[in-house]
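Pasting two entries for a bug report.
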Amino acid sequence: MEIKKVPQYGYKIKSIWISGFQRKKIFKNILLPLKIIISFIQAYFIIKKFKPNIVIGTGGFASAPILQMAANLKIPTLIQEQNSWPGATNKILAKKVDKICVAYPEAADVFTRIIMNRVNLSSKLKIDKKYLSQKIVLTGNPVRKEIMFFQNNTIEARKYFQLNIDNPTILVIGGSLGALTINNAIFKGVHILLNKNIQIIWQTGANFYKQASETFNNFDNIKVFQFINEIDKAYAAADIIIGRAGAISISEFCCVGKPVILVPSPNVAENHQTKNAEALVKNNAALMIADNEAPQKLVNTIISLIENDILKKQLAENIYKLAKPDATELITNEIFTLINIVK
């Protein structure tokens, strides 16, 4: 995806020959040793030609050769871990890089254990604690600019979507391609929601849009979109939000400060979306429904939450406490500090 998207924003992009380890189909790893060797060679020449002041990674197997080579060449390195449970690549790189920016305290704990495993705690405890506090920094995740200027003007937002200003409203976010479980649950439970006078702003994603839009085209209280460009207005219009538990989505939900029902995707590496959701649930900052339980529970949970003003208030207050609106500034400050140290 990056090969197509990055050039659209005016940046050049280089690819390297590498892939992740296939856990389920072991035979597909036969070329992996060769790919690793070649990817390190490619990384070396990319770095030598580009001459970066710093190399930054956000996880994923493609970042490993570049960051490892940069560390070998004594170029400052930084990784930004977006999830509450670090991915395999970032865990491998933790000992090598100069700085680790995390979005969750849980991720900081994991990295701390990884790094501390290599030291003698009895003799270096104080030194290591200071070192770790400087190396691992809780920054949060950067979020889109329009989210940062989110204004909770519910009446104007509902007018924008041509909805009744007084009726309870939910925002359903199916992702860019569509979260099939969420979409199916809403599709099958629409009439139950409408009987409760609940309005729906529904981002279906590409794969479910035709089915939903054709079915509910003439419904005044259901607004179906393949993708919502004015997402800040959708957040403002909503009483509660339903969506997946991706790292950036959760960071946005925190900044918005609305009650959220999370349905983590089961189809992600190391089940990190469930761990992201659990990090909020333990702080009473969100509700979570397992993907396989959503068809039976999601609609009833929506209705129950809509009707529970006390719980809505608690969830909204607690999720907003977890927001890191200055995440971008915090991360860039760490980047500039690393560069200045070298200078």
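Entry 2 (this is the one that rendered wrong in the viewer):
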Amino acid sequence: MKSGTTERTRKQVVVVVRGPAAFFFHPGDRLVVEDFPSAMGPVNMTYTTRWLNKGDDIVLPGHLWIDIRGQANTLEDALVVFGNAASGLLPIFSLGANAAVDEPEIEVGFDNTPGATERDYFQCYLPPETEIIRAVRKIKVEPTVALLKAVITHREADRLLRGANQYRLALDSWRLGRESLALAHLWMALEAITKTKLRDMCESRKLTETGLASSLGIAQDKLDSVIRRDFLLQGDVECYKKGKQASDGFEHGFLEYDKMREHSEVVAQSLVTGWTP
């Protein structure tokens, strides 16, 4: 089949996903991402918040709501691909707001091709939002757009997104009793962005990795650990040592859980006191 024929038979598809988030868009605010690449081709995505009318002029923020539109051969082909495209940027929202966000779920999908006389349709029941009021943070749209552009146009975009996603998962576990899991994800985030920092330092100083190691007075095989400790963690030796011990103990199973949690609490406290909103 010729590519032109294939293009003409592709359908216009809409997929909607939603899920809980510890941040919200102000009523009327939304963030639109156009021509974002997916496995099915470019898609347009709109991120906003569902607002729930509770009567007597009371509205409460509900789930994060994402509308994804693009072309696909079938609705079935588009559902997961479009949903994954929308989820792929959530780590940046989480990073920008410093707030957790769960994986959204597909709620609705349908064929939106103009002039079609028959349309495929999909709907999955999702539980309604809880009426329990939670502390949430407001998304600042313009700074978030700037952050999105900076990350997705960076030459290390994939690595930065992996690091941001680990940070998102850490925030999702940032509660009493889950310190060790939060720390494990924080350490994986640190590992994910180490090479990015290393390469940026090499480029800014016009050095090779061998030259950078020499300028820092260390062996080249120590570069990654020194980058993490002295530059990403800004010389916080205790945070680095206890974070590494707890992460290694969690991953390889050689550290007692109470000791692992003790280290995790120290690192979490260090990160909180060092955080500047």
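Dev reply: Rendering is fixed now. As a check, the viewer should reflect this: The two ends are 55 Å apart (CA to CA).
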